[in-house]
Design goal:
single chain; mainly beta; Ubiquitin-like (UB roll); 5-stranded mixed beta sheet; 1 helix; 5 strands
Length: 71
Amino acid sequence: MTDNFIQVEINGQPRQIAANLTVEALLKQIELSTPAVAVEVNLELIPREKHPSTLVQNGDQLEIVSLVGGG
């Protein structure tokens, strides 16, 4: 692994991502940047207003849930 990438787990799947990404930037990168998304990092719910300032760290375990409306 180089200094430019870190290893994380997203919804149970190992994944290599760019280092120094915020939660907000990660959501944009994986195309889940919608208002109806919830993010947990290491079992801690991250409020939406903290997505731009919360850095994803090497080894973090993220759970990302996108709410989908329907009937």
